[in-house]
Design brief:
Helix content is about 35%, strand content about 20%. The protein has about 260 residues and is an alpha/beta fold. It has a single domain, classed as Rossmann fold (3-Layer(aba) Sandwich). The longest helix is centred in the middle third of the chain and has 16 residues, at about 145-160. It is globular and about 50 Å long.
Length: about 260
């Protein structure tokens, strides 16, 4: 049965979309059938991280009952299915988010995991993502404001009739500075386990500007390894770092990789 996991944060700027997109590719490394859906209808960015800057079919068109959800899917070279939301604010008109969880379950019934890239904050869009998910993976930075908002999100979850299960926290953009909140303090403050720690890594910015992802073309980077470990933990398995043969293949194969397929299912 498909698991719908909401990747969310109580505030913007913590790197939630970076985590959702790279985690999607990382899960594909374990031969799982995975999709990532942009649930940030107002300020959608997910497609941009995959190098998609122009797309005529989006989640918004599905939510307006103009096309099927299958028609909104773009296929990443890793095999990941990506469903972007529209960049056009006019496409927010007349969208219908009722019974969205059931609609996702029907379309993705034969998938292993669907990741929802939630809108940040505690507003209507974020609430829609919470109500549409089975589980929640929080993304936070090692600072007090970020963690306070995680606690607020948990309070909202507890008020829902159908409660998604909190999986824990991904602590993102860790610089290992003395002023940062420690992992023990994160766990103590939020009462949630840490699923993974992603270090601050310039490879992430470099990859984004090259319209790619570290989990796709910088698999030996510190951040990519962190995402693979998180993916393994979510699947209840172990991550094996690539050996020298894998690295050589990656070096010579990188230039030949077609990063993104424009084909729509």
């Amino acid at each position: 049965m498909v698991r719908i996991i909401n990747v969310c944060s109580g505030k913007g700027g913590v790197g939630k979309t970076v985590v959702a997109s790279n985690l999607g590719v990382a899960l594909r490394k374990f031969y799982k059938k995975v999709a990532v859906v942009d649930f940030n209808f107002t300020t959608s960015h997910l497609g941009l991280y995959f190098g998609i800057f122009s797309y005529p079919r989006t989640l918004n068109h599905f939510l307006r009952d103009e096309i099927s959800l299958e028609e909104t899917m773009y296929i990443h070279s890793s095999g990941l299915r990506v469903i972007p939301a529209s960049l056009d604010l006019s496409d927010l008109v007349d969208i219908n988010v009722n019974n969205l969880k059931q609609r996702l379950k029907e379309v993705f019934h034969d998938y292993d995991i669907v990741l929802l890239d939630s809108a940040p904050g505690l507003g209507k869009e974020a609430l829609t993502a919470l109500q549409s998910s089975d589980e929640v993976l929080f993304v936070a930075n090692p600072n007090i404001p970020s963690l306070v908002d995680v606690v607020k999100c948990c309070q909202i979850i507890n008020s829902l009739e159908s409660k998604p299960v909190p999986l824990g926290i991904v602590v993102n953009r860790v610089k290992n500075k003395k002023y940062e909140i420690t992992n023990d303090e994160v766990t103590q403050f939020t009462e949630l386990p840490i699923v993974g720690v992603v270090p601050e890594d310039e490879n992430i910015l470099e990859s984004a500007n090259r319209k790619t992802l570290v989990t796709f073309d910088r698999q030996n980077s510190s951040s990519a390894k962190a995402f693979f470990k998180i993916a393994a933990r979510l699947l209840g398995t172990e991550y094996r770092a690539p050996g020298i043969i894998d690295r050589i293949k990656g070096i010579f194969g990188r230039s030949e990789k077609k990063f993104f397929s424009r084909d729509v299912l």
